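call fold target=Lipopolysaccharide biosynthesis protein
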Amino acid sequence: MNEEARGQQDEPELLRDQVQQVLRHRVLVAGGLAAGLLAGTWYAVGSAPSYESSGEVLVRAATINPYAATGISVDKQINIGSERQTAAGNAVAERAARRLGRDPGDVGDLQRHLQVTNPPDTLVLKFSYVADTPGAAAQGANAFAQAYLDYREKQTAGTVATMVKGYQNQLDPLTRQREDLLKQIDRLQGDTEKSTVLAAQANLLSQITQLTNSISELKALDTNPGYVTVTAEPPTKAEGLGTPLLIALGGVLGLALGLLGAWLRMIFDPAARSAETVARALRAPVLGVLPKAPEEPLLALDGAPAEQYRSVAFRLAYDRHFADRRRLLVVEPGGEGTTAAAVAANLTACFAETGTAALLVEADLRRPHLAGRLPQAPGTRAGRAGVLAADGDPWPGGRLLTVDAGESGTFELVPGTRVPHVARTLTSAATTRLIDQADAPNTTVVVLAPPVLSYADALALVDRVDGVVVVCDPRTTARTALERIRELIDGAGGQVLGAVLHPARPARRGRRRAAAAPAAPPRERELPTGTVTRDTLSSGTR
């Protein structure tokens, strides 16, 4: 399978992982949903209901015969856009205010509640009015419709009166001139002069007849500007989405904002948060996830934690890189290393349960504490381990302790001891020979080191241990910290075998509990001077 096909198969997994990470921020999602529901409820309950009623008016031009194809008309062509502006203007609003019994100063408020629209390809104006009550909405729409018709009729009547007056002003001089011509005709005796005056009279009479006809047609005009085709009626329900829908809409918007906040929190959250993110950062599998048990002892002898440790140990046993050398370094990214100590001790007990000679080396020489927290094996005798005494190095204190792991058997512990020069001690030949005990058949060495990002002690041991297990809490460990650990281990010549995840533990409470009721320290037993051999390690293993 090529890389492109593999990438396409990984896309659904990455998307599923992102969705799961978003849903982990339940507080943000639930907070957004609650805020949206509260906002929707507040808006639905706090806002006053509004009612809208509409009336329609058919606009027409003033004409003598509205059914004739042609005829005299004051308005040659109706511009419905201009009519819509007129209907929404101040002049119509003032007339509507008087009809509603409102003060003329309320014209602006009335216009804010009015909307005049024109359905496409019609000469119809639709008056929509919004009010707090159904009756007020219907009254407002009807008042504006009638006010518009009254205003249009008054404007048309005024135009007709102006035109009639103009024609009359032209007709009056012509009438007086005609009367003068009639008097001249009566006085004239000659046929020639009389025929000339008669011709002038005929021309004047034609003009008088034309003006008289125009005045008659204007006076016969139907000045009705239109008709109310739909009378506004009180609405039966309020406008808007309604209380249930507003609350639901607020919840949807709040949930969307909550998811957006969770997504942004996921994007800018430096913590790994999930096992998949830890695996990608370390480029190694997650070997196990420990259950949340902050009060458990250092050694988990039974129950779910013990089974989880056994699962991790078996996965490591079948890892080819670990099986070749059987050396394991357990570290934490930062902190105090308390969880790494529990993982190291329990993995050592699991290896001892398989019948191998297991040795736990506490390489934390700055804060050693395993000797006082692990139970002693009964029937063992105290002694000194000469493994490092031959080289004169003080660590690990010349002691080799046998730890009782219950049904898992026993394993050997080389406890840590405070030394003045930690780096020189960890890189000494004696430390190398101690770790090299894993080269003996059927032997496993587990090394516990301090947090890898706090001290360089773990890196000093990587080239001799090779296999590293990182113990971390993904909710408090940054992705960049895990990537830094992988780079450091790769640069030191080692390899990250996997990660063990655990929930956050109250470290201070654990320290107080350990100090208040410490476990009985393991007993020391005498060993011959020299190096630790496989027979020495196997002697304390069941």
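return ok
The chain is about 50% helix and 15% strand. Confidence is low (pLDDT under 50) at residues 71-75, 381-392, 506-542.
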